[in-house]
Sequence to fold (180 residues):
Amino acid sequence: MERSLSHIALFAALIAVLGFVPQIMLPFGVPITAQSLGIMLCGTVLGAKRGALAVLLFLALVAIGLPLLSGGRGGLGVFASPTVGFLIGFPVAAFVAGLIVERSRASIGLAAGIGALVGGVIMLYAFGIPGLALMLDKTLPEAALMITAFLPGDLIKVVLAALITQGIARMRPDALLSRA
Fold:
């Protein structure tokens, strides 16, 4: 229990630290950030439940006003911005990524890559696109077209999540809670 709580807190902090990596702001108000890599790692390393809890802790800290999102954003106002769908999708993305790693019989690197792709990209877009459409008064196809700018960076993050998870499995297998 104590180990789980410390891992949840550590990964919430990891997401916050990744917010310090300079963002690239797209013209329609949604930044490309490193924080989605943290979301992917929450799932692939901690597993479904712990990963989602780490993300929920992070979002709770953002909601109470801590400027932990990339660009120093925080507070309830971020939940009424074009990023709202992505924020709501964060815990779902971590959960799905973790569930795939937990249930997969594939090598940890492959399982983490698939989990990061399905959870951290497909599920995140499934929430982000409608949120973007709603907040910017766009159609779903228009919003989907807008986020194509994220794809190359997100695919790089998928590869990084797989490699980092595989590295943790080799170096500290007891720290890989998604396969515990």
In short: The chain has one domain: 2-22+32-173. DSSP finds seven helices and two strands in the chain.
